[in-house]
Amino acid sequence: MILKCIRTVAVAALALVSVNVAGQDLLARQAPIDRKLKAVDSLALIRQIKAEQAVYPAYSLYPNWRNDRVHAYGNTVQIPDTFRIDLTGFCMPTTHTKITSKCGPRWRRMHNGLDIKVYIGDTIRAAFDGKVRMVKYERRGYGKYVVIRHDNGLETIYGHLSKQLVKEDEYVKAGDVIGLGGNTGRSTGSHLHFETRFLGEVINPEFMFDFPKQDIVADSYLFIRNANRYPYQRTRALANLKSGKKIENTESSPSESGAIRYHKIRKGDTLGRISRIYHVSIDRLCKMNGIKRTTTLRIGQVLRCS
């Protein structure tokens, strides 16, 4: 009787050990499968993100996709205090280099872009990858124009075209031909009106693009909320000056004092040294570049200085 009990206990223990070993073997065999499934899930997620970006570029920034208005956002969008815009992968919209009218106050109103001299029929190209949001005609404004929203958050506007060669909701790559230069709309001569906007906020294209050199100013541009509104504030300040009102918040902008200036960090550079060279405070340097006084400067790094 005792021997039978011992045999039964031994058989039960052996069964438990066998089940445990089998379970461990099953888990060991399952682990590579789980890893493969996770890899498949990750790839699927990446594909899904790319698909959404193709449908709505910068979809995490913009509240809507509308084809009826150029400036379609107003107070419906939340503008971040700072945002770094990637400028790599660009293509100049035209090979012409002569700027006939700059961005800023002009004829008692704001000119929100650059006018570049082109001739009727000249090739106009997309500046970055993106999706065409608008292809419209405005008789007393842009004439025949194209608006493209890009993956980096920018929207570019190409005005006074003689012909538009893309359709709304069409995805384009940087360098793709989108139209031909012209003289349509409110224009006194053939040229390309080129605008760059971020969430509807105007950014002077010269802050990012060097048309004479056919290159970008730096690999990225730091957008700072309200910094691009200084020209508007200056216009209001001049109006107030004529009416005898107190002038407030009239800080000058780079577009008023000349071209924006950048400094490429070299060995031995410090924020103090750069502030003395460009006659700008260290705090202002930090604010313009989104850095702190304690930030380590890297050789080759580009800082905005005005």
Overall pLDDT metric: 79
Portion in beta strands = 25-35%
Q: Would you tell me the structural class of the helices and strands?
A: alpha+beta
Poorly predicted tracts of residues = 230-258
Number of helices: 5
If you compute it from the alpha carbons, what radius of gyration comes out, rounded to the nearest whole angstrom? 29 Å
Helix-strand pattern? HEEEEEEEEEEEEEEEEEHHEHHE
Q: So, CATH architecture of the largest domain?
A: Distorted Sandwich
The largest pleated sheet is described as: 8 strands, antiparallel
How many beta strands in the DSSP annotation?
19
CATH superfamily of the largest domain: Glucose Permease (Domain IIA)
Approximately how much helix is present in the residues? 25-40%
The total tally of domains equals: 3
Q: What is the fold-level CATH name, i.e. the topology of the largest domain? A: Glucose Permease (Domain IIA)
InterPro entries: Cell_wall_metabolism_enzyme (IPR050570), Dup_hybrid_motif (IPR011055), LysM (IPR018392), LysM_dom_sf (IPR036779), M23ase_b-sheet_dom (IPR016047)
Pfam families: LysM, Peptidase_M23
Protein name: Peptidase M23
Keywords: Signal
